[in-house]
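Worked example 2:
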Amino acid sequence: MLPLLTPDSPSGVRAVFTTRAGGASLPPYAELNLGSHVGDDPGTVRENRARVAAAVGLEPQRLVFADQVHGTAVSLLDGPVTIAPVADALVTRVFRLAPVVLVADCVPVLLADPDAGAVATAHAGRKGVAAGVVPAVVQAMRDCGARPEAITAWLGPAIDGCCYAVPEDMQAEVAKAAPGTVAYGGRTRSGEFGLDLRDGVTAQLAELGVEQVLRVGGCTHDEEDFFSYRRDGTTGRLAGLVWLTGPVRS
């Protein structure tokens, strides 16, 4: 069994975050690297993805990965894909089709409105948060009939304000675009200027009317259970995925 993080979710929805344990990758990607773009052996990445699919009870092709570029593009999924969409947010209304977000410090955002039958993921890194990927994915869900007050959001393991050091001018630039992203007290644990992206995403969601926001997992930089680009440089990627349970509709 893979040691997955499975937070409480509304009826009809399942949300999952992976850790780095339980995979086949060798160092520096050990163990459950799910990113195909980081230099790991492609066959090993496919094996790791298949292990996650089996652990959550889905066919591998029903996990949909994106080509993430730190932007705001949202892709609407109507079934499994053969080519990964270039997008940092994925939305679907298809049962048992799981959009996937990959991170190694950025915030993996999962969203669901089971009444509207819509789920989504977003890759919320510093650039994406400042550019507006969170408002973009919430609007895409609204276009699918979701209501912000009915959306549950899960923010998975990410680097926290204790560890995310940035130059002062970058802190000010991000805070101007996305108020709420400044680390508590403005500084990291080591005294450098800092950002807290999960705080920033929470503030953005609240402004959009999404108030059911749950944090899952700790700081990726602090906790060895997670991949962290800032801590390790060359490393793997963990995943967040969410789907509507029920019969397959293709």
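The longest strand covers residues 107-113. The domain at 13-156+218-244 is CATH 3.60.140.10 (CNF1/YfiH-like putative cysteine hydrolases).
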